[in-house]
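INSTRUCTION: Work out how this chain folds

Fields: amino acid sequence; protein backbone structure tokens

Chain under study, with its fold:
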Amino acid sequence: MTPSNKDASILRALASQVAEIAALPVQQQTIELWKALNGLRPIRPMVLIDQIPWHEMNVDDELSLQSEDPFCRALETQLRRTLYAWRHMPVDMVVDPWIDIPKTIRGADLGIRPIEDRSVLDPENDVVGHYYIDQLRTEEDLEKIRMPQVTLDEAATARSEELAHALFDGILDVRMQGMHPGFAPWDRIVEWHGVEPSLFDLVDRPDFIHKLMDRVTQGYLSMLDQLEAQGLLGQPQSLIHCTGAYTDELPAPGFDPARPRARDLWTMGMAQIFVSVSPAMHQAFELDYANRWYERFGLVYYGCCEPLDTKMHIVREIPNLRKISMSPWVRVERGAERIGRDFVFSRKPSPAFLAWDALDGDAVRADLEATRDACARHDTPLEFILKDISTVRYQPQRLWQWAEIAMQVAQG
């Protein structure tokens, strides 16, 4: 199948705009700033915005899709969002001169799906409430967790590659992209077992939880082995989770673009449900398993919404650790002191500022400056990553204003 002339014309016009931006000297300048930060020799704090409520962001039809084919519409969405972000809230984003087309990879999962009830407040928003049904009540139920059987769908991948070349040759390079897997088993376990049963079982049935984690970890490591053996891991990344991944340290010596290895890549992980768990339990029921994953990779980004400022003595022992998430609920001074110069303080400013009745720019600035100044006192490498933005109250200008303030704080 070939794209229609209309769809091809739309995508090539958008891709041409992206290519012009990607050719600007500022892209390489920003990459060098990311490399300096990721190498723990920062020039200044860096800023990115992630997990945007795109359904609230459309202005003057900048995000309105015009193509018809589903494959083309997915690419059009990607291109339009890149152009929109560059126009209105570029912060420290980098526009690369290629487009990633995912390989069609089957079986890279553990064979179990959530069963849930949902609560929806805004039907246009993909942020919804979840009530998960417990599927793992007994040890016998652990058999529902299957070992992955990873395969490449060569025909589907070839079709995607052919279409992408037909659309973008002469404008953007086409890069067939493999997987960049992370290790966040507790995000999945609570979907299969429920939040309360998972937390209660840490105390009431620790042997059950150890068996669960052992099985899940075996599944993840089996998946990684298969991806690596089949050459289905991705190329070195522009992003890791939600932050810039540019570095001079990866890929590792001996890198083969046709067969990337885990040690050529960043990985990421988290245990968000462990916000209320002691450091000892966090170590025993998460990190003792997770470290088997992290030791395989070149560099590691750890954490998300869980506050880690009180757990630095265990977190800093993660193999190949480079970036640590500092959520809106940490004590910034304590986090900066305990991270010091050893890792990147990946600050997650609160997205709640964007959901108030009106955006208070002074409060945003004061919040960012407090983190910047604490990290300066302890000589701690710093990035600001605004994410988990559920709403801007259908006022996209709020996010543009946040971006402007953040860059002023980072550059000043």
